Amino acid sequence: MTAKSHSTLLSPLQTARRLAAGFALTAVERDERGGTPKVERDALRHSGLLGLSIPVQYSGLGASWSETLAIVREFAKVDSSIAHVFGFHHLMLATRPSGHRHRHREGRRHPQRPGAV
Description:
By secondary structure, the chain is mainly alpha-helical. About 55% of the residues lie in helices and about 0% in strands. Helix 4 packs antiparallel against helix 5 (about 80-95). It starts with a helix and ends in a 22-residue tail after the last helix.
């Protein structure tokens, strides 16, 4: 299911709450056992939420930072490691120099600092 088709079924926050409810059922056991939350990461991947902060014109959901943070907080209520990975994913998308949020800068010349050689 694509992010676009999924967003028409449930809001991103509703989707996150549904996922978080499932994550909560196994969080303590997974934490005690250690390892990686593969099943939970796959559920997150299939939910369409990895495209949350990507603009709609690039096939994302176009969420704002406050909407993205609200979803990170939903996950953090039940599983801090999943919340961390999800939040970091969106942070990396937004801060990459070649990322979608910086395309408007392409072709622009950055002024040199005074005294720079």
